[in-house]
Design a protein that fits this description.
The structure is a single chain. This protein has 337 residues and is α+β, with helices and mostly antiparallel strands. The chain folds into 2 domains: 138 residues, Aminopeptidase; 163 residues, Gcn5-related N-acetyltransferase (GNAT) (Aminopeptidase), CATH 3.40.630. Helices cover 30% and strands 27% of the residues. The strands form 2 sheets. It has an 8-stranded mixed β-sheet, with helices on both faces. β8 and β9 form a beta hairpin. The chain is globular. The two termini are 36 Å apart.
């Protein structure tokens, strides 16, 4: 793609040496969106090491004449089949209104077009997605002006342990909770995730489960902010009934834990397992001296997850939305939730 940028601004694929500048760009943009920073350096580097993600072809960084990373974009199209590529774009606020976000998005559109050749079934729809917070007019305007349409609403929810007492978890008889062991066979944990998550909005059963498992394992066992000792499975005998994965901080707040994923397999739903997993997690992190927890949830969740989170004392913090541009019309294979 030929970039049309102001004089002196230069685009190129990111390298590991760009990580600090890219994090500065992320955090300046996220401060403008939410009042909090977004990443620490090691988190970005962990993401860049994800199996199947290639910096040379999946990223672009725009440098300003003074050496700032003025904007950055990356596209995540590692799923198989890649029918829902995800475009992540950030622009430093001081460089708004220079066309940088538009050019980075156009680069993402071209990358999404490449998915057409990789999706063997020509009848399948391919949709490029991105997201932003609804209270951030510059990024909402960017996406809508580029003809992306709002797809789905998501809610950020939080609980402050110093303001809301943590309830005692109530486990159904026969259910036990334990931490995840990365030294053990993780295949049952992965299969439990697929079983529990397959009826959530946007889910696509991976065709290449081996590659997908390696990404799952990387995200669980090879990231500094994920400690398996504080990720939990609910066991019914030898079977996994549900699981909860955490990250050790929430955006720039190291006093809060982030609940990255919570799911209960269909066979065990309606037995209070999700609520018990949440309360157990809250209690364990309170012992560590953490003062709260946060997560984001599909506002139209099939399992009515918002009410679950409200029942444990969580409340709305802010709302964001995914936006979509149809790259190729066709049949959807995502779960509609």
């Amino acid at each position: 793609m030929k970039f049309e940028l102001p004089e002196g601004f230069t685009p190129r694929p990111a390298t590991v040496e760009d990580a600090e500048a890219v994090v500065a760009c992320f955090n300046a943009a996220h401060m403008d969106m939410t009042g909090t920073p977004e990443f620490e350096l090691h988190e970005l580097l962990d993401d860049w090491k994800s199996p199947g993600f290639d910096l040379a072809t999946k990223t672009i960084v725009v440098y300003a004449p003074n050496g700032d990373a003025a904007g950055y974009a990356e596209i995540w199209d590692v799923d198989d089949p890649p029918v829902r590529p995800f475009l992540f774009v950030r622009v430093q606020p001081r460089y708004y209104n220079l066309g940088i976000g538009t050019q980075l998005s156009q680069w993402g559109f071209e990358k999404a077009q490449e998915c057409i050749e990789r999706v063997e079934d020509p009848s399948l729809q391919i949709g490029l997605r991105s997201y932003t917070y609804l209270n951030h007019k510059p990024s909402v305007d960017l996406l809508t002006n580029l003809n992306l349409e709002q797809e789905r609403l998501y809610i950020d929810m939080e609980i402050d342990f110093t303001q809301t007492a943590i309830q005692t978890p109530k486990w159904k008889e026969g259910i036990a909770v334990k931490s995840i062991d990365c030294g053990a066979d993780l295949q049952p944990v992965y299969e439990a995730f697929l079983d529990g998550w397959q009826d959530h909005y946007g889910f696509i059963m991976p065709q290449d489960k081996e590659a997908d498992f390696e990404r799952f394992k990387h995200n669980l066992c090879n990231q500094d902010e994920v400690k398996p000792d504080y990720c939990y499975v609910a066991m019914d005998g030898d079977e996994i009934a549900g699981l909860l994965l955490t990250r050790m901080r929430y955006w720039g707040n190291r006093d809060y834990v982030y609940v990255d994923l919570l799911t209960v397999r269909p066979k065990w739903r309606g037995q209070g397992i999700a609520k018990a997993l949440l309360l157990h997690t809250f209690a364990e992190f309170e012992k560590l001296g953490r003062t709260g927890a946060a997560l984001d949830v599909d506002a139209s969740s099939l399992t009515n997850a918002t009410k679950l989170y409200e029942s444990v004392g969580m409340h709305l913090k802010r709302t964001k939305a995914t936006y979509e541009l149809i790259v190729r019309p066709g049949k959807k294979i995502i779960h509609e939730g």
